[in-house]
Design goal:
Layout (H helix, E strand, L loop, with lengths): L8 H14 L1 H4 L7 E3 L7 H19 L9 H5 L1 E5 L4 E5 L1 H10 L4 H8 L6 E3 L9 E3 L5 E6 L1 H9 L1 H10 L8 E8 L6 E7 L10 E5 L20 E3 H4 L10 H17 L2 E2 L2 E8 L11 H12 L14 H11 L6 H10 L21 H4 L13 E3 L3 E8 L3 E2 L2 H13 L10 H14 L3
Parallel strand pairs: 9-10
Antiparallel strand pairs: 1-4, 2-3, 3-7, 4-5, 5-6, 6-8, 7-8, 9-12, 11-15, 12-14, 13-14
Helix pairs in contact: 3-6, 10-16, 12-13
Length: 443
Amino acid sequence: MEMSAAGSPGTGHRQHSVKRRRWGGLRQQWKLLGLFEIDQQHEFYSLTCMMKEGLSAAIQNTSSRAASTEASDDDFRSEVSQIHKDFTMQTFAGPVFSGLRGSLGMTETEYEQSLCSDSCYLQFISNSKSKADFFLTNDKRFFLKTQNKREIQFLLSNLKIYMEHLRRYPHSLLVKFLGVHRINVPHRHKKYFIVMQSVFYPDDRIHARYDIKGCEVSRWTEPAPEGSPMIVVLKDLNFEGQHITLDRQRPWLLRQLEIDTHFLQQLNVLDYSLLLAHQDLQKDERHQSLSFATLIARTKKSVNPGSSPAAVPGEVPQDDSILLLSEGDEGGLTSAQAREALSSSALHTCPGTAGPGSDATELPDFRAQNRRLLPNLKNPLHVIDGPEQRYFIGVIDIFTVYGFKKRLEHLWKRLRHPGRSFSTVSPQTYCVRLCQWVQDHTK
C-alpha cells in the first residue's frame, strides 16, 4: 500500500505524534503491546477502508433478504460479488453467516455499526508465527484476519458440519466465524479475510491473557515488565503453578472442551489454541443473588440465545431447565423456587434452529448438549465466572490440517526435541493432550 504524500518519513512521524497528543484520552486505552491505530499514515489504511466499504454493502445485502429458518445448500454455495470504485468484494455463504449472527443475538445493524463505523480499525501484532494480518474493530468486539486461499477453502468445505456442531452444541467454545470475504484490487493479489468474534470481549478489565496448546516447546513468552501498561499474550509455561478456579462450572468446561476438540479431531486438524484470560470479579459480581426475573431472562438466553421466546414453538422441559440453573448458577435458588419461577414465566422456546412444524418431542436433550446458565453479558458463550475471577475462554485457529507436511514436521521435531512435548502431533494426541492440560489446571 502506498503511503500518502505527506513529505518525509520524519514529517509523517511528527504528524502522528501531534494526533497522538490530540487524542490522548482515547488512545490511552490503546497503549498495549502490538496494538496500533490504523490511521491515514498506516500501511493498511487503504485496505481497511476497502474492508469497511465492502462489508457495509455485503451486510446490507444480507439484511434485505427474507430470514430463512434453515440454510439451504445454495446458501452454503453462495458467492456474491459487489463492484466498488477501486475494488470488487466477494462474500461467501452470506446467508449462512447472517443466520449464525442472528442466533448469537446480534442484529445486522449492530454488526454493521461495529465493523463499518468511522472509527479506525486497530492492527494487532501478535507473537504468533502466523503470517496473517490481524485487525480489530475500534470497539474491540470483532477480529478480522487475513487467510490464504487454502484455509478459506477448508473452512467453506467444512462450513456445513461446523454449523451443525454449533446447532448441536449452542454453548460451544469454538470461535464464531461471522463472515468470509475476498477483496480483489486490479493488478494486485486477491486478499481473503474472515470476521470472527473476539473471545476477549469486553477487555477493559482483563489483566492476563494466555494462548494454550498443551505442550512445552516454544511455549514461553517474556512477560511485560512489572507495572508496565503493555499487554503480552502469554503461553503454556507462563501459566505453570496457576489454576482456573471454577468450582461447580468445572465439569461443564471439561465436557465442552472434550466435545469441541473431538470435533476438531474428526476434521483432522491440530495446532489450534485455547485462548484464556482472566480478571478479578468486583464485589457486586461475587455471590450475587439473582431475582426471579433476571433468572428467567438468563435461562431464556441460555436455552435459545438471540431468539424471541414468543416467536418459536415448543416448551422447555422443566427438569432440563432446572438442570441449567442448579449446575451453573451462583444464585443459590432451590429447585422448587426455580421451578416455580420458570412455570410462572410461561417460557416457550426451542433451542437450535427449530422452525415452523417442529415437534416439541424432538427437542434436543439439554444434558447431551452440555448447556449451562449463561451470564447476562455481551459475550456470554466465552465468559465463565468462578468464585473470585471471571474467565474468557475460547478455541481458535482451527485451519491446520494434519497432512503430509505436518507429518514430516512431526518426525523432524521428534528428533530435535526428544522427550519433550511440541505442537505438531497427530490430531488425536493433540485433542487428548489439550483436554488433559485443562483438567490438570482447573479446580
